[in-house]
Amino acid sequence: MKPFLKKPFVSPTRLPFSYGWVVIVVAFVTMAIAVNVRTAFSLLFPPILDEFGWQRGVTAAAFSVGFLSSVVLAPLVGVLMDRWGPRFVIPISATSAALGLTAATYAASPIGLYATLGIMVVGASIGMSYHVHSMFLPNWFVRRRGLAIGFAFSGVGVGAIVILPWLQSLIEADGWRYACIAFAVILVIIVIPLNVVLQRQDPSDLGLQPDGHRTDDESARTHSTVDVIVDRDWAERHWTLRSASRTPRFWWIASAYFTALYAWYSVQVHQTRFLVDTGFDSDVAATALGLVGMFGIVGQIGVGALSDRIGREWGWTIALIGYVACYGALIVLEARPSLELVYFIAAAQGLMGYGIGSLYGVVANEVFAGPRFATIFSVLALGGSFGAAAGPWLAGDIFDRTGSYTSAFWLSGVLSLVSILCIWMASPRKVRLAAGVAERRAIPPI
User: Fold this and answer.
1) Fewest CB within a 10 Å sphere: which of 6, 157, 380, 415?
2) Which has the closest alpha carbon to 309: 296, 318, 298, 297?
3) Longest dimension (CA), the chain
4) 318 or 69, higher pLDDT
5) What pLDDT does 378 receive?
6) What is the distance between the terminal CA atoms of the chain, rounded to a whole angstrom?
């Protein structure tokens, strides 16, 4: 089956730069909108609570239901990516999210919220966010893979700076329903056409190789590159979902995803309400969420680029230490509120924690790369979806039972440490080295 809309509108050989960077820029813009469409739930959460008076656990469960639905959707998305590519999958996902945002304005019960903001928005966003982009962006780069993907995913931070404060102003001026409609319009006029026209799954679709070389480029064939493969038997195996799932590495990576996204989304969903409960006004809470995104621009690019030089395990460790620090500060903040701690929490999430995004697909790709990687990754990432679903729901339930987030924050901090352990046990460096590590090892001693 030929990839959806395989032929380009503009020949990549006529461009003065690598088409891989076109792919990255399109991903940057898409991620700025697609990930923040579900981050926006944190801003919609307080006015929905105030209007309907539902329990926090019940209301936050809409976010959890969305991620649980993504568990069902993930294998299908993987198959569709292998068959049709991002130019089909991403627009379909954006269409679902736009319809869900619109339909949410008519919701009058938790079930309605679960179906719209939950399944149609948060759930379907799996087809245009980290999950899908992690399936094909690693195809375009080898030498600067972490940097390139980090740049693409830093769009999330730019979107947070631009979109979230704007969305909060709409909520305060015109209500949360108007804000939902406005966000739906952005998806339709930007995300859908941009990906249909310009996005590509693999450089071979355009007669190219990774890192910008053409397939018929003699210099690409003769240019010596550092061999990053450590375990050739493993790396050259034709991995299928069946064979991959029988290895311990598969389950260590899935566990690392579960614990990392549990920590990520627990704070993301509940942070705004927690800050308001602690005594900060809604503007400060919204600004803090935006600052996480702003710092995340540096974090995604920085941690991704650093992992190219020191290895994926160390990059993952740095990211999760950010969440350990974040949750420690949240526990202190509850007892001693201060703006300095709010800024520290935002910085720890963004500068360090958001680095998970640039490594999320890379660690799996360097272990299970191959023609069936999208299918393998879609099932691997179910661990992350379960974690993202469990975190917000359990944090809300713990608050409803105890009247405090303290126990929830302790749990998330511990799971952040567990995630670090899991990625070291998976050991992607024992299959493929990051390019910078391989280059250093290839330099003969003086």
Assistant:
1) 6
2) 318
3) 72
4) 318
5) 81
6) 52
Mean pLDDT check: name the lowest of 174-183, 241-250, 320-329, 418-427.
174-183
Give the ranges where 128-217 is alpha helix by DSSP (H). Answer: 130-136, 145-153, 155-174, 176-186, 192-198
In the numeric block, the tokens 């049709």 are attached to 84
Say if residues 138 and 211 touch (Cβ distance below 8 Å). Answer: no
Backbone angles phi, psi at 46, to 5 degrees: -60, -50
Residue reference for tokens 């969420």: 289
Q: Do residues 128 and 186 lie in contact, with contact meaning Cβ atoms separated by under 8 Å?
A: no
Residue 295 class from Cβ within 10 Å (0-12 exposed, 13-18 middle, 19+ buried)?
Answer: buried
Q: What is the pLDDT of residues 131-153, one digit of tens each?
A: 788 888 887 777 777 778 888 88
Q: Output the pLDDT for position 104.
A: 82
In sequence order, the 6+-apart residues with CB closer than 8 A to the CB of 143 are 211, 225, 308, 435
Distance from CA of residue 317 to its chain's centroid? 17
- The predicted structure's pLDDT at residue 223: 41
Instruction: Write down the residue that tokens 């549990």 correspond to.
Output: 262
Distance CA 181, CA 50 (A): 20
Distance CA 415, CA 171 (A): 34
Confirm if 170 and 179 have CB atoms less than 8 A apart. Answer: yes
Helices marked H in 213-281 — which ranges?
218-222, 232-235, 241-244, 248-278
Please say whether the beta carbons of 300 and 157 come within 8 A.
yes
The token pair that represents 276 in the structure block: 């308001």
CA distance 76 to 67: 15
Give the containing element (helix H, strand E) for 97: helix 86-104
In this structure, are residues 264 and 427 in contact, taking their beta carbons and an 8 Å threshold? no
Q: Which is nearest to 48 in space by CA: 37, 60, 38?
A: 60
Check: CB of residue 333 under 8 Å from CB of residue 343.
no
Cα 32 to the center of its chain, rounded Å: 11
- Concatenated DSSP letters of 369-425: -STTHHHHHHHHTHHHHHHHHHHHHHHHHHHHHHS-SHHHHHHHHHHHHHHHHHHHH
Distance CA 257, CA 291 (A): 24
Alpha-carbon gap, residue 349 to 354, rounded angstroms: 6
352 vs 336: CA distance, rounded Å = 24
Confidence of residue 365 (pLDDT cuts 50, 70, 90): confident
Is 429 within 8 Å of 230 (Cβ atoms)? yes
Give the length of the chain.
446
Q: What is the mean pLDDT of residues 191-196?
A: 90
131 with 29: CB under 8 angstroms?
Answer: no
Please write the tens of the pLDDT for every residue from 38-57: 778 777 777 877 777 777 77
Residue with tokens 């990255």: 24
Give the whole-angstrom CA distance, residue 139 versus residue 203. 7
